[in-house]
Give the backbone structure.
Amino acid sequence: MNIVRALKCRECGQEYEIQPTHVCEFCFGPLEVVYDYEKLQGYFTRELIESRPQTMWRYKELLPINGEPTVGVQNGFTPLVRARRLEKVLGVKELYIKNDSVCYPTLSFKDRVVSVALSKAVEFGFTTVACASTGNLAGSVAANAAAAGLESYVFIPHDLEQGKVLGAGIFGTKIIGITGEYDDVNRLCSEVAGKYGWAFVNVNVRPFYAEGSKSLGYEVMEQLGWKAPKHVVVPMASGSLCTKVAKSIKEFIQLGLVEDNGTAIYGAQATGCSPISKSVKEGTDLIHPVRAKTIAKSLAIGNPADGYYANRIIRETGGWAEDISDEEVVAAMKLLAETEGIFAETAGGVTLGCAQKMIESGKLPRDESIVLCITGNGLKTQEAVVDAITKPRIIGASLKEFDVLAEADGVK
Amino acid sequence: MRLRVYLTFNSDTVCEPIIWKLAKEFDVMTNIRTAEVKESTGLVGLELEGKTDVVDAAVKWLVAQGVHVEPIEQNVIEG
């Protein structure tokens, strides 16, 4: 059942037919997919959802595609982990990790948004897809396009680390490195997106792409036993995830799938790129663009397109936003790994570190359920922690030498 | 070509008639689609239409005047 109604301008409310476009022709406001939810009443039940395969597509009626997905059919439905050891360290009663560091196939939540964007692109008749990225998005577009038999172009800054180039290059995508200042590179990508007849995932198909994030929220609620959490902490780059998690909760409440639990949404940023968190803390809705300087590169968006909307969601839901230093990011990455066995990328350190700070300041209550959204895998940002991990102690191939070590460790 | 950009003005540039000067200096059609101007900051959604090299030169000129020029998508490059 297709319940997608239109694309609607978030600013002036102008509606557009479903098409590959992303800004309002009248006021340049961003477009968002809107649905006729009443068509799902009595049909879209918990039982129906539970009867479907464990992928993000079990909620397909609430994702903006016609019929069945064609790209990323197996993506999503990552674990929701009860973090009991971390609860003790943080001194909280009920803590969960939504672990998208194991999202299929490229180990980041971008696989959710890209699956929707590319499925929609195929529907629209595109045969080439593209993106501009410094990491997770590039890998996800390249991999999902490869698996779907689509041609792909990935634009990157020319001096991007070799490891990240490899993460997209292995999939046979066409990688274009661009020289120049960040702003010039950014503008060029927008011009390319405007000129060539491709599906540029975060430009002309962005309204559809962004909706894929909602699947993370749906999964959390189902995995909590059809309950909305009291508090959700999300990392913020463009701010889109923040708004879409809120939208997913609103939709489930409207459809009677969960009760309104008064969920508060919290945003996390690294201090070196914290325009949204600053605006929340200063009590304004003005987002001042910044030059990003942080090891949390997947969150390094200096002028976030959804910043204003994320700020509004955080304030409306009674949440808060926080930011932490790069040293705190590394410490939080280690804490998550050592307590829960989850190796998150730098953005995961940002989320946990900010949650920790908000628990200590009393912004996040200790006695109610908290969900932390971990969105990417630590294997992709190893350089951030390489100096922070314990180096191996080297011994000769002799039991005697090990005995000495074991005794020093107090092993009996 | 037709280019759609957001211009951000700071306290030094917000009072200057920069868009008027731009139209005098370059053979481009300017069309303001949205604007919010405060005492120390301004944001203008502007459409620029003209020959590609002229539009490119116009953007460079805006940057040289101290105006921050961004595509309407703001950040196209993601993590």
